[in-house]
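Q: My labmate handed me this sequence with no annotations at all. I'd like to see what the chain might look like in three dimensions before we decide whether it's worth expressing. Could you predict it?
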Amino acid sequence: MTDARTEPPAIDYRTVHSIGKLLLTTLSLLFLLSLVSLLPGVDRLIPGTPVTFVAVVSAIVTVAVVALLLYLAPALARLVRKTLTGPDRVVDDVASIVQLSVVFVAVLVAHRGLEPAITPLLEGLAWMYDVVFLAVALPPLAILAARLYVSLDPMAELLADRLSGEAPEGDGTDG
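A: Here is what I predict for the chain of 175 residues:
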């Protein structure tokens, strides 16, 4: 017998509220950053540095957005676990895929948002910036790829079962 959930449990109001607030906060920060970038003079260099004012503001907003994304990742995984129906293994795989995807996106956002403030300071070693972020991005990407690989067959079985309305023959669960 498969370990399937028949009805998704009710989604906790506080969980949805928290996730919604985090998403709206992230979008608000990005909107405010776009407005700040339009202010006169923000594209000027900070005296004595090769960095602009907008790069510093962008770096601060980037750190806040990355922190929000990293805080949001496990909350989204919990939400997926509560809302999806199906075998626990598949639901857990999908929740992990969602969480790892958000972590990977956070790394990419950090790379893109911090670059204007950091690479001018590195001068001839600017390539190290990319190497560091490559090293940080590869582990979540590798784990994501592994999780996708091991979940392909169970998700394909669930999809075939749901679309065809039939249980697989000889699936090895009859003893």
